[in-house]
């Protein structure tokens, strides 16, 4: 069974972790959560409330990380997923998180990121010349990292699949599963 790594941490958006986690399991993948440390993580719930200039945040579910990022051998995985929430804000400073992202970008292997997830991709230096979605207020961050921002729910640029936030989960994972299938078919032909 092929394995996929979700790179996350405390304050990740619950829906952006759980939806890909369960959807990828349903598709037959073994899914691991990688975080700065192997411990219980506290996720959050972001919502959009009339009258607020930005989203609100409440405590969400907790979930155990399967592996510390320092212990990840990227070659053990066929793809990575980077959920949003606030976790990418500090993960972009984590050398192991950036090492893993760079490995997948160099291999042209599937990468999915949503919401604030592209902050980690930008910090890893893999958005240069790439088209990426993100939470719309992060358009400037995508562009500062050398990328082209596209305000969409399942933006595909080669093996990179990005989205704006949890309301895009369906279109984001649909596009990512198509990229995964094409990548695995190509790998099988090459073998």
UniProtKB/TrEMBL annotation:
Gene3D superfamilies: 3.40.50.880. Signal peptide: none annotated. SUPFAM superfamilies: Class I glutamine amidotransferase-like. InterPro entries: C56_PfpI-like, Class_I_gatase-like, DJ-1/PfpI. Residues 3-178 form the DJ-1/PfpI domain. It holds the Pfam family DJ-1_PfpI. Belongs to the peptidase C56 family. PANTHER family: DJ-1 PROTEIN, DJ-1_THIJ_PFPI FAMILY PROTEIN. This is DJ-1/PfpI family protein.
